[in-house]
Design goal:
With 379 residues, the protein is an all-alpha fold. Helices cover 66% and strands 0% of the residues. Helix 15 packs antiparallel against helix 16 and helix 17 packs antiparallel against helix 18.
């Protein structure tokens, strides 16, 4: 659309939006604005962040692609006036429109949509039902209500719709459902472990501990994540064992969990943990290596890890330099301040950005004053 065309459109929509509708016994019709493209109208809604009833009505009466696009746009727009149209879309003949409406109602954040979502959870297709369950749970729908809405479905269908969104319900309600799913086998075990990890509760410690030995690496990784949230010093050796895993997921989750235990004061870094983190600093897998750099900061001061992090801060690859700098600043070893001063003049903006954060951690106000005048806005 040309600039003049867009300007004409804005004027037309503004005038239409401000003029009162004449009294009529028939439903109002959407004004015809010649030359308008549905994609442009959708873009206009989201870009202006302004709910326009005439545009919504026009697109809601359009073909399936336009209705699906409108459902997504109404979720991103975040205006509560979009709730009614999205609830109508839950019964749309197009499955993509139904699914997008179910997700968008969760984005909208209006609890009044829960009854419509619960109705769709048990009646619509599996994808829409799964998304409706998730949105209803996010908006405060109680687990018994959700289970009741699914009561007319088969046991397998209930699992498929409920378990992917189990982590949205309150932590105290998760455990009994997750325990049953873990015993049931199949893909539902992963969703159950994920829920236990995302909404970790001390009551779930027995399940999380048992999952550390599960044959599925995904479940071992989620168990490590949960222990990082609710575990204690006794779990650090169990996490240390995961650092030797062949799959990267459990290693990364164990590194993050051990760091969380140490930084929260629930555990102290042991010699074995330090040695395991040090080995992972040379891991060939970038995700593992970068996570190890971050975890090493919680083990400082350390005669081996400190110099190794300093070396990465000076000559690491990619994000290693910035992460090593932040890890050093967190531990505040003697090498940290000189390296931060050097990084503040680095040609790479990402390194200077990390230098600003590290300078704040070290209380280096002079470096911060210099970086405040940096040519890069993010610095």
């Amino acid at each position: 659309m040309s600039r003049s065309g867009a300007a004409a459109l804005l004027v037309a929509l503004t005038v239409a939006g401000c003029r009162p509708l004449p009294p009529s016994t028939s439903p109002p019709t959407t004004p015809e604005l010649p030359g308008l493209d549905s994609a442009a109208l959708l873009l206009l809604l989201v870009d202006r962040q302004l709910f326009d009833p005439f545009t919504v009505r026009r697109l809601a009466d359009g073909p399936a692609a336009e209705r699906a696009g409108l459902a997504r746009a109404l979720g991103r727009l975040g205006d509560p006036r979009g709730r009614v149209q999205l609830e109508i879309f839950l019964g749309d003949p197009d499955p993509e429109t139904r699914a997008r409406a179910a997700f968008a109602l969760g984005q909208l954040g209006d609890p009044r949509a829960v009854p419509a979502l619960l109705a769709a959870a048990g009646r619509a297709d599996r994808r829409t039902g799964r998304l409706a369950v998730g949105s209803a749970a996010r908006l405060g729908g109680a687990l018994p209500e959700v289970v009741s809405a699914l009561s007319g479905l088969s046991e397998e269908e209930v699992r498929e719709r409920l378990l992917p969104s189990l982590f949205h319900v309150p932590a105290a309600e998760i455990r009994p459902v997750a325990v049953a799913a873990l015993a049931g086998g199949g893909a539902g075990r992963r969703w159950a472990a994920y829920a236990l990890a995302r909404r970790a509760d001390p009551e779930s410690l027995p399940e999380l501990e048992a999952l550390l030995d599960d044959p599925d690496p995904w479940l071992r990784g989620w168990a490590a994540r949960g222990l990082g949230a609710v575990g204690g010093a006794a779990h650090l050796p169990r996490l240390e064992a995961l650092l030797e895993e062949p799959e990267p997921g459990p290693v990364i989750q164990a590194l993050r969990a051990g760091r969380a235990l140490i930084e929260s004061g629930r555990a102290a870094p042991t010699r074995g943990w330090r040695a395991g983190v040090s080995r992972r600093l040379d891991d060939s897998r970038p995700g593992v290596r970068l996570t190890a750099v971050e975890a090493a900061g919680s083990c400082l001061p350390d005669g081996e890890l400190g110099p190794r992090l300093a070396g990465r801060a000076r000559a690491g690859v990619g994000r290693e330099r910035a992460l090593a700098l932040l890890a050093l600043a967190a531990g505040d070893p003697p090498e940290a301040a000189p390296l931060v001063r050097r990084a503040a003049a680095d040609p790479d903006p990402a390194v200077r950005e990390a230098a600003a954060e590290a300078a704040a951690a070290l209380g280096e106000t002079g470096i911060l004053a210099r970086l405040a005048a940096d040519r890069e806005p993010r610095v």
